[in-house]
Design goal:
Its main location: other. With 773 residues, this protein is mostly helical. It contains 34 helices and four strands. Helix 21 runs antiparallel to helix 22.
């Protein structure tokens, strides 16, 4: 091997690097700009020829090539100087680490190679843009799309210089423009997106670009430009051949939805009917029902519902995922596919179908038949005869829930059937506490409280921890007025269920019935510590404090109750009366105005508003309010009396008109009373009713309920027809009074306002919570 190693002789006095700087002046790159022949060659096709790589002066590629036989061949430099590592005159030239200049490598790179690299970069940018969009980074996706567009234009110019225009990659241009338009649309830059789509659509070199008018229609739909959306949808539909059936169906569905948004239900119906006849699907069927519902066509609603039920789900049955044998391999496969992506898609499709069917049934049930119940029964029967049999039970439950929301409890009171099922349960297992409790519930509903108590006692003997039976026997003792025994039951239950709002309320209610308000208040305080936003419990506390004469505390709890539930008319009336008592008539106005909104047909609330304006000295506002009341209630005598008096004192010309109307109404009232008296002479009933009517007309406007009578007594501070306009004697305000209109800490509102009532709890315990196990 040593024969192949050549060492430089130590006594050689020749310069080893001689000739290194000798080179052909042709390769003097510093003077290329001034070389006329070189510049002319660059401008002509001759300059576009690829360079001959063998003549490129480079020291990095001219090493001697060794063979397997130990011979060595050196490559001579084209410039006449020895190459690095070559043997010259028997002496081996030393090897160096100097590489060739980058200028030569880059300047003479093939244009086709540059184009390929740039094309690769454009594809990468498009891909990165799509990935960023899928990850939710819309801004980055748009930047990548713009960058891809810029580089693609550079690529096109370079291709035009090297090749003919026919060789331009149109597919790449199309993908870049489409991605850019999509990213503009995703970033809600609709004008730029439409402009980019127009560039694609108008270019005749792009095949099938016309279908992108669907995307343009979608943008116009988002901009609520419905006429243009329909125009572009139809243009796209004309350019898509009939063989693409699925695409045409989707476009027609978009057209139908747009017609619904514009209120053109007849055109929408035509679109959806065509879809359901060609390729029925769930969305089109549901939209068809909505369209028929909008035009009020009952028969067509029924037919559309039947079409929706008949849409095939095209999913596998659940039995497919149940192993038919004990084969471990089969079980392993079934376990693997039981929750795979395909199975999840099937579940989602089924859930969507059930949602559409349930929503459609709830929508059309009240209108397709003479009553809600008959319509719902028709929907249930149709569902039972379809592939969605399991939805029939859900529809029945929804029907019952609808009755509960409408407070129509009698619709579901099938006591005979409930009693027969309860008997079957008891006969099958006499020692089952749930069966005995439900049997007691049916007896309780029929009013036989003694017998119901016996069933509850038997349930407790079989299971002393049956809280439902213990609670219900407490309610039963309350109905029997055995308050001590009822209190014992609820106190025992309280030791088991420490924070039960129902139990706390029942204890407080029993103490109230036992005329022990202090204990009732104490237990209600515990109740609002558990449910601090319960408006009913707060108003009950206010009522108890009011009965004890503590107006300040009563006001605090009534006001808190009003904050959480501002539609309780009793609370509103008490607050209005409280402000009148404390000589703050201006603040009472807002409560009576709210009461008039809740009960717009009750004239007394509007009269209270006018009276508050009058007492506060705002006579013009009071006059306008009385005039407005007279327009709404022209036969109200009280309103006319105040109008006559106000117009007289102010000196208005309308006084004569109102006086004439008042006189005519009073005469009609007198004639009506005489007829009643002559028809029922000597009866006490009519006389008491006449007295109540007269009291109402005299300006008191009291409610008929006992609580209403107590609360309306507070409103008697308002002046009657013969009282002066000035406010009565000033009263000192309680030192503990708190202005409700002052700074208040805003409390978060609860999602639902639960109202606690004895009958509500009875219904809860006698209903869903006591079903057989």
């Amino acid at each position: 091997m040593m024969q192949n190693v050549h060492l430089a002789p130590e006594t050689d006095e020749d310069d080893l690097y001689s000739g290194y700087n000798d080179y052909n002046p042709t390769y003097d790159t510093e003077e290329l700009e001034n070389d006329t022949a070189f510049q002319q060659a660059v401008r002509t096709s001759h300059g576009r020829r690829p360079p001959i790589t063998a003549k490129i002066p480079s020291t990095a590629v001219t090493r001697p090539v060794a063979t397997g036989y130990g011979s060595k061949t050196s490559l001579a430099s084209s410039m006449g100087r020895p190459m690095t590592g070559a043997i010259q005159d028997g002496v081996t030239r030393p090897m160096t680490a100097v590489r060739g200049s980058w200028f030569y490598q880059s300047s003479f790179e093939s244009p086709e190679e540059k184009i390929r690299q740039l094309e690769k970069k454009v594809n990468e940018l498009v891909e990165e843009s799509c990935i960023a969009n899928s990850c939710g980074d819309l801004k980055l996706a748009l930047e990548k799309a713009k960058d891809a567009g810029r580089k693609e234009r550079i690529l096109v110019r370079q291709r035009e210089q090297v090749t003919t225009p026919e060789n331009i990659n149109l597919d790449l241009t199309y993908s870049v423009l489409l991605n850019l338009a999509s990213q503009y649309s995703a970033n809600e830059m609709y004008a730029e997106a439409l402009t980019t789509f127009q560039v694609i659509v108008k270019n005749k070199m792009f095949s099938n670009a016309g279908r992108l008018k669907v995307n343009m229609g979608n943008i116009y739909l988002k901009q609520r430009n419905y006429s243009k959306a329909i125009k572009f949808y139809r243009m796209a539909l004309d350019q898509i051949p009939s063989v693409h059936k699925e695409m045409r169906i989707k476009i027609m569905q978009n057209i139908g939805v747009t017609f619904i948004k514009t209120g053109q239900y007849s055109d929408a119906i035509n679109s959806f009917e065509h879809i359901m006849s060609m390729a029925p699907n769930l969305k089109a069927g549901f939209n068809l029902i909505l369209s028929y519902f909008a035009v009020g066509d009952r028969d067509k609603m029924k037919k559309a519902f039947q079409k929706l039920i008949a849409v095939p789900l095209e999913i596998d049955e659940d039995d497919k995922y149940i192993s038919p044998s004990d084969d471990p391999h089969t079980n392993l496969v079934i376990e693997a596919i039981k929750n795979d992506r395909l199975r999840q898609m099937e579940r989602e499709r089924k859930a969507m179908a059930e949602k559409y069917i349930m929503t459609a049934a709830k929508l059309i049930a009240p209108v397709i038949e003479t009553s809600f119940a008959v319509g719902y029964d028709w929907c249930v029967e149709v569902v039972k005869a379809s592939q969605y049999v399991e939805l029939a039970n859900d529809l029945e439950i929804n029907k019952a829930i609808t009755y509960l929301r409408q407070k129509d409890f009698n619709q579901e009171n099938e006591f005979a059937q409930a009693s027969s099922y309860a008997d079957l349960a008891v006969n099958s297992d006499r020692y089952n506490p749930s069966a005995l409790t439900n049997k007691g519930n049916t007896v309780f509903a029929n009013g036989d409280y003694e017998k119901a108590a016996e069933f509850y006692k038997e349930a407790l003997r079989n299971d002393s921890s049956c809280t439902e039976a213990l609670y219900n026997i407490g309610l039963t003792y309350k109905r029997l007025n055995r308050l001590d025994e009822a209190l014992d039951c609820f106190l025992k239950l309280h030791t088991i269920l420490r924070n039960s709002a129902q139990v706390l309320y029942q204890i407080a209610n029993v103490y109230e019935l036992m005329e022990d308000p202090h204990q009732a208040i104490e237990w209600l305080m515990q109740l609002i510590s558990v449910v601090p936003t319960d408006s009913r419990a707060l108003s009950k506390l206010g009522e108890l404090y009011d009965s004890e004469g503590d107006k300040s505390q009563a006001f605090q709890y009534y006001y808190e109750s009003y904050r959480y539930f501002p539609s309780n008319i009793e609370v509103i009336e008490w607050l209005g009366a409280y402000y009148i008592d404390t000589q703050f008539c201006e603040k009472a106005i807002q409560y009576f105005e709210r009461a008039s909104l809740i009960q717009p047909t009750q004239v007394k609330w509007q009269l209270m508003v006018a009276s508050c304006f009058r007492r506060s000295g705002n006579y013009q506002k009071a006059l306008d309010t009385y005039k407005d009341i007279h327009r709404k209630f022209p036969e109200n005598v009280e309103c006319l009396r105040f109008l006559v008096r106000l117009c007289t004192d102010i000196g208005l010309k309308e006084v004569q008109e109102y006086a004439t109307k008042l006189k005519r109404l009073e005469k009609m009232k007198e004639i009506r009373e005489q007829r009643i008296k002559s028809g029922r002479d000597g009866s006490e009933g009519p006389r008491s009713r006449r007295e109540g009517s007269a009291s109402s007309d005299s300006g008191q406007n009291c409610s008929a309920s006992s609580k209403g009578e107590r609360l309306s007594a507070k409103l008697r501070a308002l002046p009657g027809t013969n009282e002066p306009y000035e406010s009565s004697s000033n009263k000192e305000i309680d030192a503990s009074y708190v202005d409700p209109l002052g700074p208040q800490i805003e409390r978060p509102k609860t999602a639902a306002k639960k109202r606690i009532d004895e009958d509500d709890f009875a219904d809860e315990e006698l209903g869903d919570d006591l079903l057989p196990e």
